[in-house]
Write a structure and sequence with these properties.
Alkaline Phosphatase, subunit A, 29% helix, alpha/beta
Length: 459
């Protein structure tokens, strides 16, 4: 109820400010104003966690269902890296790790509060601001928080979130340090982090409802809990508000990790619903391009007792180049442009979102560097074929390449390539390397072409 009251007050305030002329109208033509752009990411959500991707999932996620009904489910959407830091850098720069240079997960306080992604990289908000867009980031940053590297120093007008890879959902602590910031200043707020980020994004939309905006909403949910983020004696368990447990009839004090994980995803779904409601209330739904995806696949953490999510029907998960690590759940919605309720199976990936954002905003792309994203809008709006000939992946000792329906992968450089046909075998169960030598040669040649061009060259 408190969330709804706050939202109503904010909408009323925004209306008065617009009437008073304090918020100028957007400069786009009245016939076809430039759309707002909302990019939402989840943190380690499994490909098979959402019922709209896997109907037998036990998780309750009605707002993800709602988003999918209004747009398109992308069943073959990829992230160029299977870990949080690197995948976010790829999204924001439109470039693969070898080009933007950030190829590892930032470690600990030193890593997360260091430079991280080099400051010469151009990020999506830096393209959109000159085109007249107001920009906001609310949630997990994880690409460097040294002076000069923070969101409000990298093109965002506003930021509420954390520097690190993951925080305690309630105390907002990472590795013993309080890690929640408003802009560049430490912010001591009470509340569940998923709710704080959703409400900050909604507030941003309300205050900027009369001008075009770009909102990046990188939730830290449903990232697994970490003992290093807990107070002495605090139990290391998944955290969610009581009402998320009650949606299943679970006791909020349950110690069943799968039940607790279900509640975390449902709490994320509820927060998504509030953001979608804000768009509806402001009558911005038809004028907003919404794209949701998980930053990478769920981690398969048998050794930690945390294997409670699902990448089914895909193989393995985070920090690997198996499909479960790099193919992620994704949904795109843009009423009047993307046909509602459809399933799109063309291979696309997150660097494409920089190109899409530039096209939607009428912004100018940088010409002094190689971008690995291509325009996904024809595939999203007219069912055109994927603009990609192939997709290239490396992380740690893993490497892979997708070319049409075929994929090669090895888990260490000394290992022979394995070959799979993803159309008939999405779970990568049958290695065809010894029986399809022509396809193997074709893909290895393509991989070598990528590797030769993929350099972390300073622009």
């Amino acid at each position: 109820m408190a969330h709804q009251i706050l939202k109503c007050l904010l909408i009323a305030s925004a209306t008065l400010l617009c009437l008073s002329g304090l918020f100028p109208a957007a400069t786009a033509s009245a016939a076809e104003p430039r759309p707002n752009i909302l990019i939402i990411t989840a943190d380690n959500l499994g490909y098979g966690d959402l019922p709209c991707f896997r109907p037998e999932s036990p998780i309750k996620a009605p707002n993800f269902d709602r988003l999918a009904r209004g747009g398109a489910r992308l069943t073959q959407f990829y992230t160029p890296s299977s870990t949080c830091t690197v995948s976010r850098a790829c999204l924001l720069t439109g470039r693969i790790p070898q080009r933007h240079g950030l190829q590892i997960q930032l470690p600990g306080l030193e890593g997360n509060y260091g430079t991280g992604l080099r400051t010469s990289e151009v990020l999506i908000p830096q393209l959109l601001k000159p085109a007249g867009y107001t920009t906001g980031c609310f949630g997990k940053w994880n690409v460097g928080f040294a002076k000069g590297s923070r969101p409000t120093e990298r093109g965002f007008d506003e930021f509420l979130g954390h520097a690190s890879g993951n925080i305690d959902y309630y105390s907002h602590v990472y590795n013993g340090k309080h890690d929640l910031f408003d802009g560049t200043e430490e912010a001591h707020l009470e509340g569940y982090s998923t709710d704080l980020f959703a409400d900050a994004a909604s507030d941003f939309m309300v205050r900027n409802s009369e001008r075009p905006w770009f909102c990046y909403l990188p939730f830290n949910a449903p990232h697994f809990p970490n003992q290093r983020n807990k107070a002495p004696g605090q139990e290391n368990i998944w955290q969610a508000p009581d009402e998320a447990f009650e949606a299943y009839g679970y006791d909020p004090k349950t110690r069943n990790p799968q039940q607790r994980y279900h509640a975390v995803v449902t709490a994320l779904d509820t927060a998504l619903g509030r953001v979608l409601d804000t768009l509806d209330d402001l009558k911005l739904t038809d004028r907003t391009f919404v794209f949701f995806y998980s930053d990478n696949g769920a981690f398969m953490l048998k050794d930690r007792g945390l294997e409670v999510s699902s990448n089914a029907p895909l193989r393995d998960g985070g920090v690997t180049c198996w499909e479960g690590g790099i193919r992620v759940a994704a949904i795109a919605r843009w009423p009047g442009h993307i046909k509602p309720g459809q399933v799109l199976s063309e291979p696309l990936w997150s660097p494409d979102l920089m190109i899409a954002s530039s096209k939607l905003a009428g912004a100018t792309l940088p010409i002094d560097r190689k971008l690995d994203g291509l325009d996904p809008l024809p595939a999203l709006t007219t069912n055109a074929p994927s603009p990609h000939r192939s997709l290239y992946f490396t992380y740690s000792r893993h490497a892979a390449l997708r070319f049409g329906d075929w994929k090669i992968i090895h888990t260490k450089p000394t290992e022979n390539w394995q070959l799979f046909n993803l159309a008939s075998d999405p779970g990568e169960t049958t290695n065809l390397a010894t029986t399809h030598l022509d396809q193997l040669a074709r893909l290895t040649t393509e991989f070598d072409r990528w590797a030769a061009s993929a350099t972390a060259q300073q622009p």
